[in-house]
Amino acid sequence: MLYPFAWMVSASLKYDKDIFIYPMKWLPKxxxxxxxxxxxxxxxxxxxxxxxxxxxxTLIITFIQVLTSSLAAYSFSRMQYKWRDxxxxxxxxxxxxxxxxxxxxxxxxxxxMGLYDNHLSLxxxxxxxxxxxxxxRQYMLSIPKELDEAAxxxxxxxxRIYWQIIMPLSKPGIATLIILTFNSVWNDYMAxxxxxxxxxxxxxxxxxxxxxTQYSMQYGLTMAATVCSIIPIIIVYIFAQKYIIDGIxxxxxKG
Amino acid sequence: xxxxxxxxxxxxxxxxxxxxxxxxxxxFLVFIVIPIFFGIYISFTxxxxxxxxxxxxxxxxxxxxxxxxxxxxxxxxxxxxxTSVPLTIIASLLLAIxxxxxxxxxxxxxxxxxxxxxxxxxxIGIVWSMIFNPTKGPINMLLSSLGVDxxxxxxxxxxxxxxxIVLIVVxxxxxxxxxxxLAGLKSIPKELYEAAxxxxxxxIRKFWSITMPMxxxxxxxxxxxxxxxxxxxxDIINITTKGGPGQSTKVIAYRxxxxxxxxxxxxxxxxxxxxxxxxxxxxxLIQFRGQKKWVNY
Lengths: 255, 297
Fold this sequence. Notes:
The complex is a heterodimer of chains A (255) and B (297). Chain A is an all-alpha fold and 255 residues long. Chain A has helices spanning 3-12, 16-19, 31-43, 47-78, 84-94, 99-112, 119-126, 130-141, 145-153, 158-169, 171-187, 190-195, 204-214, 219-251. Chain A contains 14 helices and no strands. In chain A, helix 3 (31-43) crosses helix 14, helix 11 packs antiparallel against helix 14 (219-251) and helix 13 (204-214) packs antiparallel against helix 14. The longest helix of chain A is centred in the C-terminal third of the chain and has 33 residues, at 219-251.
């Protein structure tokens, strides 16, 4: 299962002429090739800028997603009002619509707003998913109602109950949403490809795919760039795999 | 007096409830709900992204049945679905059963097998297309050292490209569905197996008479999710083959992308995407109808 990753790391350390030698040698002959590959991708191809762009997008989208979804989830799970269940049904219904059904109209709307080739396009399109609301609502429903009733008797308003009681108790659910959002924004390829054009705006995945077309014959460099694109995911995975796996085992939904 | 009080209290509660919703629902309406309806409207026009937007009735939908590229893409997609779905289910189920038994390193292997499913398709596509490189890649090097003369061309031949993509995707996704199967396996009561032991049932018998029936709700859900995602496959194809060689890996989602974003036929592209939505919807509906025959709750 891990062979492709091992092969990738090994290739990223070597000069092109040493990559396809058979039988394969896993380690490079000297440290020079390692330095050459990893230095080149950050100097020649401004990979650092792609990193910065992606980090910025990921942080902003994850923040908006968690804040607005948790407010909406609080409203759906803790408050009683007239249209509540009908609105929630609308949210659920959109979960069934596949992305390409809304790809074209979204594209037209973003273009007419003048946001093409602007990071705002991705932020606006990806910050409001029905999935996040659904996930957090399920989580908040499992918190006992007596807690906020007691707080209400003590004179707490909704905002305070939301912030001081429900949010702290929903931490595992929020952690799952953070991780899944981070992961899907970091790995996203389709949306950046549709909406971003100028080189200074590219994300890591997009940079990587252009890299592949432009430097397709420079295997060592391509592999070094690929390794760098995966590292953040590995770090998050090591620290948060419990939340990722639990989230998937219980919700059965992909972000 | 009391009644009036209550109704005004209800009103403020409604306003407060909607206020909590506002930040999310604004974005949700503008960028998800409105596009859905706008998309349906576009699919009945000849919109090209600039000035033209005439109503053309069902022309776009009728065109689908005559468009040989779309028909090819549809056939390719069916091939992709009927190969990738069973292979993914079998691979993930076998992994889950093996891990459910392994006690010592179970957690470690779960971590390892799951990992490919959270890495990006771009990275995976790049790495695999090097490994499958027909002249220099390690797989063909190994095959030729084993004495195979007629080396497969993997992604570079129209005969094998689509199936090679199936293999890559199965490798990537098996760990994801494995996690769901593991959760299903964990929920089967141990007493059933103990009772079967007393009755002298062997392993194979236990698998078909206890594990499979008890796991059927999970299998049902995994099947649905796999089929839905198989009709949306795009990233891996755009990274590795871009629909080629020839038309051999052109699937429906790729055809939609090509027509709408590259050729700017938004109207026709939108019609194709709603046709695809309809296909997915009908296939899912049929499965829900058929589940009574084999799913035990």
